[in-house]
Amino acid sequence: MRRLLLACRLLLAAVPVLPLAAVPVLLLAAVPADAARIVSLNLCADDFLVLLAPEQVAAVSILARDPSLSVVAPQAARLKTVRADAEAVLALHPDMVLAGAFGAQTTLALLAQRGIRIERIGAPHDFDSIRAETLRLAALLGEPARGDALLAAMDRKLAAVSSRAPARTPSHALAVQPRGYTSGPGSLTDAVLRAAGLIDIGAGRQVSIETLAARPPDVLVQAQSPAFPSLATDWLRHPALAAIPRRTVPPSLLICGGPWTADAVALLAE
Amino acid sequence: MTRWLILGIVLLTVLSLGVGAAGLGVPDPLILWQIRLPRTALALLVGGGLGLSGAALQGALRNPLADSGLLGIGGCAGLGAVIAYYWGVSALFAPALPLAGLAGAGVGCAFLLMFAGRAASGPSLILAGIALSAATAAMLALALTLAPNPFALAEITFWLMGGLEDRTLSHVALALPPIALGCLVLLRLGRGLDALALGEDAAATLGLPVGQTLRRTAAGVALAVGAGAAVAGGIGFVGLVVPHLLRPILGERPGALLFSSLLAGAALLLAADLLARIAPMVLPLAQEPRLGVLTALLGAPFLVRIARRVAP
């Protein structure tokens, strides 16, 4: 690779009329000429970027490689990762940086000063906003066809669930998050429970084990426990809750709203 | 006095089994045995261990400000427990959690005793404790930033504030043996501590094995505080406050304070935990106040009062 670069430089030195911008094209012939170098600093942005435009990835966040958090972990294993650190990002010479709505403010301000385009991604909270955000990002990345394909697959899965007639009265479900917080109306999890034909009784408040044991829901929806030890999820193993039926969903499907969230609906509707 | 304390503990225990998020009164057997019983038992165990440790430390170090929390021993125990928990050791071998807690507390006690042996003055010991607290806080933060769990720093913030909610009988099983052993060691030190009250040299001339008494104090405190911190998080000020509450009634003799401090510590922590459970029922709180926060709120003004009295 280094030899190739050197060869290119020699070539450039010999032929000064060749435009500098042609170098990446020479090196990465498979990539379309208008492809941008894009760095993602946010887990949800990683998911969208890798699914919509894997060829344009300059780097993703380190969380993208964690299979419990990211839906693109297998692909991310082969991609470069970067921390939200201005120096590290600048060294990658990105054209655009994708970031979440919050966090890394000082880093992003520095990058913006250096003339790098910063795009913040939204946090969809239902399937309509997932559609809107997917279309927006697909257009932004110049891949509208891939966006449409992802949404078509999502809608097929959702239609398959809703076409199945509910056999019995719908269950009252409570989705519990670490430390006993419940997902409330208007949240992504609420949208997933409703799409799966469940009645969401969560109010967004924290519940205690004692309240749960005294008034158990028909089904407790929980995210799969992470691979690392976590105090916040340990409490779900409390013996007083052992009798309540549970459904487990991979957290990667619910952390970020996207076309993949339909898989959570399909899992819960089974 | 002992009779009144035992009566108080019995009353508080009955109340504690009847109060919780599910409401007042005798609950469902599942809630009674799996949730309220472990919580009540742990409050008594941890509180008793902290109260007795405070009395023993204040006697052995001849310093009214000695307390496992203030001297950084609680922080050392927390550091040990955090390392055992976040690196998955306690998931493989559950007793590793209290063991690491008491190993941490043991290191802290050893450091302080080494220091106490050389510099006898009260303030310098407290300063050494502050240095130990600062060092453990820094190492704790370092351990958490290196931990495999990216949310460790956030969840440990809650843990360090101490609490007994949602504990199970297995937590009781883990904490009971070391705390009971530690309390036994400390309760047998009464005569040694009485002699030490005259000063180390005077105690030595009375034939007291000073070094051994100090080492036993350290071992007992490490067992009681270390295992307590491993299951209940950071709960401070119980050991500081309890002996001071008892001295006006029982006198200054350290040996006479030990057993009563055990009982009073148990009663105080159970009362504080009851308060934490009742607070969301009467106040517009979304969740229980943390137990360690309550004991600190109750204990900090006390520390100011003692400091004012001790100051020349």
Which bin fits the share of residues in helices of chain B?
over 70%
Instruction: Point out poorly predicted stretches of chain A.
Output: 1-30
Specify the overall morphology of chain A. globular
* Termini separation of chain A: 50 Å
- Estimate nothing, just give the exact number of structural domains of chain B: 1
Structural class of chain B: mainly alpha
The CATH homologous superfamily of chain B is termed: ABC transporter involved in vitamin B12 uptake, BtuC
Q: Give the name of the CATH architecture of chain B.
A: Orthogonal Bundle
CATH topology of the largest domain in chain A: Rossmann fold
Give the spatial strand order of the biggest sheet of chain B: 1-2
**Major pleated sheet of chain A:** 4 strands, parallel
Please count the beta strands of chain A (DSSP E, at least 2 residues each). 8
Radius of gyration of chain A: 22 Å
- Helix count of chain B equals 14
CATH class of the largest domain in chain A: Alpha Beta
Give the strand tally of chain B: 2
Return the structural class of chain A. Answer: alpha/beta
The helix-strand sequence of chain A is: HHEHEHHEHEHHEHEHEHEHH
Global shape of chain B: globular
Q: Architecture of the largest domain in chain A, according to CATH?
A: 3-Layer(aba) Sandwich
3D architecture notes:
Chain A folds into two domains: 31-122, Rossmann fold; 153-269, 3-Layer(aba) Sandwich (Rossmann fold). Chain A has 13 helices and eight strands. Chain A has helices at residues 2-14, 22-27, 43-52, 73-76, 86-90, 105-113, 127-140, 144-163, 188-195, 209-214, 231-234, 251-255, 261-269; strands at residues 38-40, 57-59, 96-99, 117-120, 172-176, 199-200, 219-223, 246-249. Chain B has one domain (2-7, 28-307): Orthogonal Bundle (ABC transporter involved in vitamin B12 uptake, BtuC). Helix content of chain B is 77%, strand content 1%. Chain B contains 14 helices and two strands. Chain B has helices spanning 2-18, 29-60, 73-86, 89-92, 96-118, 122-146, 152-160, 169-187, 190-196, 200-205, 210-232, 238-250, 254-282, 291-310, and strands spanning 19-20, 23-24. In chain B, strands 1-2 form a two-stranded antiparallel ribbon. In chain B, a hairpin with a 2-residue loop joins strand 1 (19-20) and strand 2 (23-24). The two termini of chain B are 32 Å apart.
